[in-house]
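Thread: quick sanity check before group meeting

JM: Hey all, I'm pulling together slides for Thursday and realized we never actually wrote out the predicted structure for the chain we discussed last week. Dropping the sequence here so it's in one place. If anyone has concerns about the input, flag it before I start.
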Amino acid sequence: MRSARKSRRPTPSPLSLLVKKWIADGVAFTLLFGGSALLGVSAWFSYKLILNPDVGIWLNQFLPESTQIALPRTDAIRTLDEIREDLKAEKQFFAEPLPLPSRDRDREMGDGFFEDNPYLKPLQPLLLPSESLVQRPGDILIPVMQTRESTHAHPCPTGCKEIVELRVYKSVQMPYQRLGTPQYYRLVYQLPVQGPAESFVIASLIGTRANQQGANKPVPLTKISQFTGKMPPSGIWFNLNGTRTVGDREVPYGQIVHYNPEHYHLSSMLDWKSEAGQQPLWEDVTGGSEPELLIERTIGLEPHFSIYELKPRQFVPNPVQLASIPLDEEVVDHYNYRKALRLARSGLWSPALNLIEPLQKNVGKGGNYPKKWPAIAQAQLDLIRFHAQITDAQATAAWASPSQKVLAGLIDGRWSEALNEVKTDRLNQTELVTLLQADGGRLKTRIQAALQENPEEPDLQAWGALIVAAQQGRQEAIAWLETESRASQDNKTRIRELLDN
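JM (edit): ok, ran it. Output follows.
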């Protein structure tokens, strides 16, 4: 009886059994949930590692060296030092990188790395303390350069170099990026570049064809700069340039490059040169919503500006193009409009302006005036006015040299004023002959174009005979006067007296 009593144990209460069951279920649920979460994270990370090996670089920053993921070396992302070493192996180097704007929506393994993964979201404050990280720097443009030999046309006192390629590198934002650590970049676009043909650069400066033979090789591009000031809102604009020695002058030339940050795309837009020795600039010429690209090609008193407007085009990576304002495209059906374009193409800007400006001011007023005034016609008017303002200012300026005053008058189409200057004692006749003989064809082209439009103007006929006499002799001038001009007998007598003097 006593032994039976000793072997009896107290029976657990129903409440304690229920608590133990809850604990066992909780542990089992926790293990199941944790295992499922771990399996899901592992599967997600494996998927990300296949698509983007750079994820492994991020994870290795938090793993002991003995357990880090073995990753093959890839060129996907590089530091500037690594890029420099890569180029050095190819006997190249890069100039100072230029900053580019970064796309705001691009997030590379930064906050978006955690936002897209709910399993890791609770770990973000632990793994990514905001106070220890640096802000993502902008993308960069790297000009790749190589050495070249010094030549007479392109001399350089020290090591000669030229730009052969432009590269766009996108900055890679890593969560482990901390102060003092190298910044990584990913190559996203490459644009091989070469300068314009040498014949293009010297075409208007060397008149003889023999001197230009064998000059179709590209000239070197040695510098790059970003346009500043008032700019079109579409993208970033760069100027690749160099200089070519022609005689005793330095002629700058180059290439305009456009960068579209929306698609990381570089485009070579056009080649340029400036006989005036000036770099291109963006300036408001037409009064539109966007400035125009202005390239000065003036030689002496001869104003010449190439003006390019920004036009849209159907090409997503680069939806813009530079289009010059055409003077050979007729969009208004009116005689004075067509005559104005012909005069402008010959360099007679002020006479052209006097013909075309009244048409624009009286559009839609009935009569013989145009009913509409297209945008191209307005751009042509603005181009003509831009040049006419220069030639008019030169013609009205006070010149110390009478021959320069005559030249300015002829360039502006002031035939009577220029001829009156010839008749005065201030002008040495030898200077006049030298002036007309030195004409490279620009004055003669003006006079011939003006004679086609106004063949019966007496003073214009006199200049036609004078330039023929200076360049071909008096007998040729008399023959021209008798056979090709419409001069009256009285005017022929007057012109012969001028030739005799």
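AS: nice. The chain has a mean pLDDT of 84. Residues 16 and 22 are 10 Å apart (CA to CA).
JM: adding both to the slides.
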